[in-house]
Specification:
Elements (H helix, E strand, L loop, with lengths): L8 E3 L8 E4 L5 E9 L6 H18 L3 E11 L4 H18 L2 E9 L4 E10 L15 E4 L5 H9 L9 H8 L3 H10 L3 E4 L4 H13 L2 E5 L9 H6 L5 H10 L3 E3 L5 H8 L7 E5 L1 H13 L5 E7 L6 E4 L1
Parallel strand pairs: 4-5, 9-13, 10-13
Antiparallel strand pairs: 1-2, 2-3, 3-6, 4-6, 7-11, 7-12, 8-11, 9-12
């Protein structure tokens, strides 16, 4: 790709961050992102909610406020009622975020796909990226893991969507509270956990920050039955791809059960925020989130080491 470096482009693609950030004025920077994917659940309105929450998450991960969203739609012809439900679900989440839904674009496609392009704002000096974690920082996770494994179990007819109701609620939940609390307390770095899983996105943060991470597997929150399904071997293809991609950059202690290690590689849909912050602010950050209904947990710390590597302990 050609080089698009510019002093106004505060965050581009160099660090594999969650969104692009462009400085407009001394006090205003635009955050731009887009995300869309195929249905993750059968309920069309639920799918719309999840896809919209997933796209909006990138704005919150950068410490910003979403302003305007546009629909991205690929859908079969003759499915107007289903499409209406998908769009209504997405509109619910955009409205909940406080942003405005201002249209979009659609193309005919045999396989449904839906998401959003979102524009937000942040002060140029308060942008939160994945590249500024500091040695000694706590690592805090704001949503439990396991959506990829549970979805695989549903597809395999081992579980029903009712069995993963908590997972569906988690995917549809906005990361708005996490973003607001990050700005209130002040944090070093953040990213949201999606397709590359906790270890994949954590590795990106470590690489971009020139440091390493230590994850305590027993402290990582999991969705109900996710570990049980992992023990049964119901693992999505994306999990294996994540493990292969990370390779020797991840060192897993022999004391960590295999199924528990598997969940850490699990590709998430609309996952939580992974936040690095000073230990002196860690308890305040977690209390603030929990007081607002977000069950955040400390899951590890930032340490010195070969950039981009992760050690998983029990």
């Amino acid at each position: 790709m050609p080089d698009f470096r510019d002093e106004r482009l505060l965050v581009g693609s160099d660090t594999m961050d969650d969104a692009a950030v462009y400085r407009l004025t001394e006090d205003i920077a635009l955050i731009q992102t887009l995300d869309f994917f195929t249905p993750i659940v059968d309920d069309p309105r639920g799918f719309g909610r999840i896809a919209a929450a997933n796209a909006l998450s990138d704005i919150y991960a950068m410490g910003g406020t979403p302003l305007v969203a546009l629909n991205i739609v690929c859908f079969p012809s003759g499915e107007k009622e289903l499409l209406t439900e998908v769009l209504l679900g997405g509109a619910e989440k955009v409205k909940e975020s406080g942003a405005l839904l201002a249209g979009g674009h659609s193309v005919e496609d045999k396989e449904p796909k839906y998401g959003l392009s979102v524009t937000g704002v942040v002060h140029p000096e308060r942008v939160i990226t994945n590249a500024t974690a500091r040695e000694g920082d706590w690592l805090v996770l704001t949503k439990p893991l396991g959506t990829g494994i549970l979805t695989t179990a549903v597809k395999g007819r081992i579980l029903t969507e009712a069995d993963m109701a908590e997972g569906i609620r988690s995917m549809a939940a906005l990361n708005r509270v996490g973003g607001e609390e990050m700005q209130r307390v002040g944090v070093s770095a953040a990213t949201d956990i999606t397709g590359f899983g906790l270890l994949g996105h954590g590795g990106e943060m470590a690489q971009a920050s020139g440091l390493a991470l230590e994850i305590r597997a027993e402290d990582v929150p999991l969705l109900p039955r996710a570990l049980e399904m992992a023990e049964m071997g119901l693992l999505p293809g994306g999990l294996h791809a994540n493990r292969e991609y990370l390779g020797e950059r991840v060192e897993v202690s022999g004391k960590v059960p295999q199924a528990l290690a598997d969940v850490l590689f699990d590709p998430q849909t609309s996952g939580g925020l992974l936040v690095a912050l000073d230990p002196g602010r860690g308890e305040e950050f977690i209390r603030g989130l929990q007081a607002r209904g977000v069950d955040a947990r400390r899951v590890g710390r930032v340490v010195a080491g070969h950039p981009g590597t992760i050690r998983v302990t029990l």
